[in-house]
Each structure stands twice: as C-alpha cells, then as structure tokens.
Design brief:
With 468 residues, the protein is an all-alpha fold. The chain is built from 18 helices and no strands. About 6% of the residues have low confidence.
Length: 468
Amino acid sequence: MASSSALVTGERLVVFLFTARVAVAAPAHLAAPLALLAAAALAVELAVDRSASAPSSPLRRFRTRPGASSGILLGATTLPCVILARLIQLLRILPTDPDGPQGEALLVSSGLVLYFGDMLAHTLSKMEFSASSEALIHTPGTRSEIAIVIQGILLGLFLLPLLYKCSLQVWVYCQTLGKERIQAVEKQAEKRIGSVVFYVSLFVVLLILVPSWTHLVQGIEVHPFVWVLNYMFTNPHERLALCAYWICVIFVSIKKFYVISKRSKTERILLRKYYHLVAVLIFSPAVIFQPAFLDLAFGAAFAVFLILEMIRVWEVYPLGHTVHQFMNAFTDHRDSEVLIISHFSLLLGCALPKWMSSGFNDRPLAPFAGILSLGIGDTMASMIGYKYGVLRWSKTGKKTIEGTAAGITSVLAACSILVSLLASSGYILSQHWLSLSIAVTLSLLLEAYTTQLDNAFIPLVFYSLLCL
C-alpha cells in the first residue's frame, strides 16, 4: 500500500491526465513516442525518489526537499505536449499544407535549445558560406519583422554577459601588466569602473551587434529602436494610448509595491499575487485590441527584465542595490540565492501563449492562456485558499480544495466574459465548453499539486489543452 501511494502522487496523476489528453488527440505515430517519453521520465523520477535511501547513489543529488517532487516527469513531458498540441491545431487549420511544422531545468533548457537552434539556423541560412548552404539549412521563408526585432535584441542581451566579463578581464589584465596592482585602488572605485565597462558593453551590443544581426537575417535598414518607433506611429492613437495606459499602471504599481516591500507585514504570497493582478490589467486590453503590438511589448519587457537582473546580480552602480532590495521583497523558496526568476516566469507565462498563437489560430482563448491561468486562476486559488481554505489536497502541501475550486470558477467566469468581448470583435468561439472545462480543471489541479515553478508550467499546459 505504501509503495502504491508513493508511486501515484497528485502531481503525477495530473501530468498523466494531461499527457493522455494530448496523446488521445494526436496521431498514433506521435502518441506512441509521447507515451514512451512519459514512461521513461516516470522511471527516472522513481529512481531519483528511491535514491533517498541510498546515500551512495549518484541520483541522490537530484533529490529535492522532503515531500516535494523532483519534477522530472512534468519537465520532460510539458514541452513535447505543447509542440504536439500546436501541431494538432495547425493541422486542423491547414490540413493540406505539406510544409507544415512537423523539473524546470528540462523545460528551460529544451526551450533555449529550440529557440537558439532556430536563431542559429536562420542566421546560417542567410550567410553564403558555401554553395550548398540553402540546401543543407532550410528555414521558413517568411517571418514577421516584429519576431526578428525581438529575437535580435534578446540575442544581444544573452551575449552581453560574455562581452562584459571578457572586457572586465581585459581591464584587470591591463592593470596588472608589468607591475603590481596599486593597493590604494579602493573597492568602490573598482565597482564604478566595472559599472562603466558594463554600460559600455551594453551600448556596444544594442548599437552595433543587434542592428547588424537584424540587417543580416531580415534586411532591416534602420536601427531596431527606430523601427519600433516607426511601428508605434503607424497607428499612433491606439498604440500611444496603450503605452500611456501601461506607464500609468506600472508607475502606480511600482510606487505602491516599493512602499509595501519596505515596511508592510502583508504575507509575501499575497504580495506576489498582486503582481499577477497587475499583469491582467496590463495585458488583457492589448490582447484584444492590439495583439501584434503586445508581441513587441512582451519582447521589450523581457529585455528590460534581463538588463535589470544583470544589474542586480553584478551590483552595477548606481542601480544594483536598489533593484536588489525591491526584487528581494517578492522572492520565494524557488528563487535561488543568485537568480530571481519569479518575474521572468510570470512574464514568459503570459507571453509564450500569445507568441505561439501568432498567425493561424482557431482557438481565440489560446492567447489568453497565461493571463487566465496565472493572472486569474492562480491568484484567486492562492488568495481564497490562504484566507478561507480548510481542506488540503495532501498532508504535506499547503494548497486547499477551496482555493482550487475558486480558481476553476474564476477562470470559467472570466472565459465567459472574454467570449462575449471576443464575439463583439469578430472572433468565433470554436471550442466546446466541456473541453474548456477539462482544460481549466486540469491546469488548476496541476497548480494544486506541483511543487515546481507553476508560472512556467501551468500556462503551457493550459495552452496545450486549449489548442486541442
């Protein structure tokens, strides 16, 4: 009995139901490998759990805190299920298209490999390094300029740490070349010089590297920042009004949260959920009225978050300490001592369903998957569960049945309102309410059971189920 209870946990059961739902909708030749992948991931996760009683086992290092799952099964199956669900959706929309697309660490690493593999292939396809380059490297023929601008800026920022550290090492070497370092150099002065190196590296990346790449792969003649300004002014009334609305919401939120983070006794979990509500206020109007502009705004926000995180981690003068003090007030046990990933996961959780829904999409609720699951479902589940929850899903967990029920109810209510708004904008709901209810229920059950970073997994699971 004990072994069966250890084998079947709440998180594993929800992941099994999620994977089974995708496999049932997929063709048999794709469902079978997904089932094998899930079985293999489950075997590895069980081996990691058994390693707790074997001190010499090499798998012991993957164990988490007592009562928490290692997340290997969830991490290994989420991204393949997302890809399969999107494939099913595209095959439903374009049934005759012959060229159609055929634990946290696993999810992030798989996503980065796919993202940078696509970026590398697209770059190499534009470089005429051999006569057969186009035959060897095939990439889709058309890409939106918005996607290229976002990809170029993120490429530059991911290369920024390499440039910054190399430049810093060169400066240190020049200081020590031919003589002993002068002991009188103060540590504060060294920090300021390092900060200057960082800002110079940042300007080199943004002013030289990024425009060079976008010109290479897309032929964009102007600097990406100039392109963004031109894009904004092609429809100035709606886009500038939306920017003004975003600035007001962000300014009020940051000012309020900064005061709260310094002297409030409010529980940290509630403070974190307030950010989710702010995400709903910011993103929902744009998804309905300016979806293409929101794609660009998500990329810009992610770039700003990357820069601020680098400034915080490296204590770049003069913003490093202030940013660290503000961000540290909203961390939890899933943030490491070095990196704070909660704000990244919230932004990407809202952005990825929208980015993946660009182009052909017969499920108008799919772009809202992140906003609905995180901004409304997760928030209401946490707040109601914290205030009124009594019945817990498990003895070791903190999630309550009352919170999950509130999350499911709130998401379904939000979907009914969204359907009316989307219908007035010309969208047609092609999804049955039974399928929608199953998607909402499974996503919120995953939120209740998983000990992984729910901001990363729940939107992808919900998006996948909405695509079917």
